[in-house]
Amino acid sequence: MNNALNATHDPALRSWVASANQAGCDFPIQNLPFGRFRPAGTGEPFRIGVAIGDQVLDLKATGLVHTDDMNVLMAKRPTERQALRAAISAGLAEGSEQAAEWAKALLAQSAVEMTVPCRIGDYTDFYTSVHHATTVGKQFRPDNPLLPNYKWVPIGYHGRASSIGVSGQRFRRPQGQTKAPDAAVPSFGPSKRLDYELELGWFVAQGNSQGESIGMDAAEAHLFGVTLFNDWSARDIQGWEYQPLGPFLSKNFASTVSPWLVTTEALAPFRVAFERPADDPQPLPYLDSETNRAQGAFSIELEVLLQTARMREAGEGPVRLSRTNTTRAAYWTPAQLIAHHTVNGCNLQPGDLLGSGTLSGPEASEAGSLMELTSGGKQPITLPNGEQRSFLADGDALIMRGWCERDGAARIGLGEVVGTVEPK
Ligand code: CA
Q1: Is 131 in contact with 361 (CB distance < 8 Å)?
Q2: Cα of 416 to ligand 1 centre, how many Å?
Q3: Cα radius of gyration rounded to whole Å, the chain
């Protein structure tokens, strides 16, 4: 288990990489997230790096690993992963004997190009915010917003991995079939109701054999870490296609992850109890454990920002659309997602991505999609420059950020994920 606090979490720890010690930095020495990078413009194969301050540490150049394959590293046993984190922390700490040697293995983040943090074999998207499920359910089914299985089964569907890109992704507005409620037949064309979804991407560490379930007590050992995840969605295509088998072309044209994979070990200081309202059903035994109740949830602050093309041209920064925290949004913990996913014997593999589903909190200002913020487009948002949005326009850049902070722990960040909509 990677739940325990150890010397790598010590808030007093400082790095010889000066930028890592600056207040508000996403990547202090207590974080140490993994990503895949190459020097910008070189076309070299991507290799494994660790973010420290505004730098990237070339992990193989330190001699600590002998692979460029992030999935190989993710498949290692928890004790090996813990030992690697301890060694990276010791080498980057102030006073380290390796400082002079490792300084040669640093590159500025501004001088590298990142890719998705690992090879994503399979991608499953869950639906863990009961607030999102209820609000969206009301729009699709006013009489029956929350389906009766919701509080018992972690709802999910199999998504598509090939169209997942890294922050900086630009994609064309998707086209497809849509049908207005009052139209007799569907029409075809570019989506007019293009939306984002604020999610976290949980990544699988070592997998399981087909036919073997991962129980709650083992689930955490199979969890590597987390990124921000934007699951772009075409609501008009979704509304026409989603019954009876769920979303398809409305979701699989693009999804964007942040480049730095923050490990569950780095998140240890931000674990919190998993709680259910007293009137709600408690999880079935295969989704329940004492450890999960005590500390199976994570407290991660999340915000969504928008920068339109006009704002960019005027030199104006992005404007915040919403803010929430995972503890206010998620009805299931990552361990429960792993236990549920494998309960039938389905095999997970290192690098598989489990999307949290849109993380909307209970208040209207905490909604993780435009569909919720604008009531299905009926109440457009007015931006500070006077522009209005019910859904995304061409040229819009959508930015998501995440971070963790509490008294007695060093603040760590997930960085950000940016994606831009291009015209069809
Ligand atoms: Ca989603």
Answers
A1: yes
A2: 18
A3: 21
Q: Choose, from 9, 66, 131, 132, the residue flagged as catalytic.
A: 132
Q: Which domains does the chain have, with CATH numbers?
A: 7-115 (2.30.30.230), 123-422 (3.90.850.10)
**pLDDT tens per residue across span 361-392:** 999 999 999 999 999 999 999 999 999 999 99
Nearest to 205 by CA among 292, 78, 114: 78
Q: How many CA atoms lie within 13 A of 110 on its CB side?
A: 1
Q: For the chain, what's the residue count? A: 424
What tens digit of pLDDT does each residue of 109-152 get?
999 999 999 999 999 999 999 999 999 989 878 888 999 999 99
Sign of CA dihedral 129, 135, 139, 144: positive
Residues 30, 17: Cα–Cα separation, whole Å: 13
For residues 402 and 228, what is the distance between their CA atoms, to the nearest angstrom? 7
Catalytic status, residue 158 = no
Cβ atoms of 92 and 15 closer than 8 Å = yes
